[in-house]
Amino acid sequence: MRKKLTAILLAFVCVLALTACGSSSNTKEQEVPAEMKTMLFSQAENDAQQMDAIVKAGQIEEQKSEAVVYAGLQGWESAKEEIGELDFTTDADGNGVPDCFTEKSITTDEDGNYIVTVGLNAEKRNADLVVTYAKDLSGYVSIATNVEYTFGELMQQAGLNTLLGMGTTFAVLILLSLIIALFGRLLTSAGRKKTEEADKKDKEAAAQRAAAPAAAPAAPAASDDGQLIAVIAAAIAAYRAGAEPMAAPDDFVVRKIRRIRRK
To answer: What count of other Cβ atoms lies within 10 Å of the Cβ of residue 125?
Structure first.
């Protein structure tokens, strides 16, 4: 039960908040007196005609010192390429306002500046001129010309933007893939070349070793037998000196030494 009461109270608070927001918005629009609205609409329509005259005369750069006006003239020139010409002379109902204008709305922003929106019925398509005047009417805060597009045109433009973005992304990815593949081939070619050079050097070294004559086995030194004979003779002399002290030490000669193979 308590949860239900809480939900009902929250819903009631939300309704009050929405009502307050709506009344605040309406209040802002109602704060502008009728005489002020007439003057502001008239001023915005005059501004549109003056901007059109400046653009046609090619005098946009002369207004470069006024940043807001200069930006507004550039936007007007860009919009005119799509909306075409405006007829400022026809006034069928005789109310003093050219038929190319549709007075839409005047509101105020948080700072109290006046936001005037005037519809433009042009040759090719319609647009909105949105002029924001300072609250003391001392100058312009912003000037914008918004071209109206149909839903089909907006969808077509969104599709083209999507295709362009995706196409650019895929093109960059393909380019990166080609660059990576090219570097891979260059590195593989360099490694293969080094391997082939190493194999060639190994084959040349093997061929040189095969062509060189086999080294003859070293012949035993002739002095080896003489040394062996001298050692054996000295051993025999030492033995005879102990066994036969009266025998002359040099009355024997060692002529031949032969190894006895024992079975």
So the answer is: 16
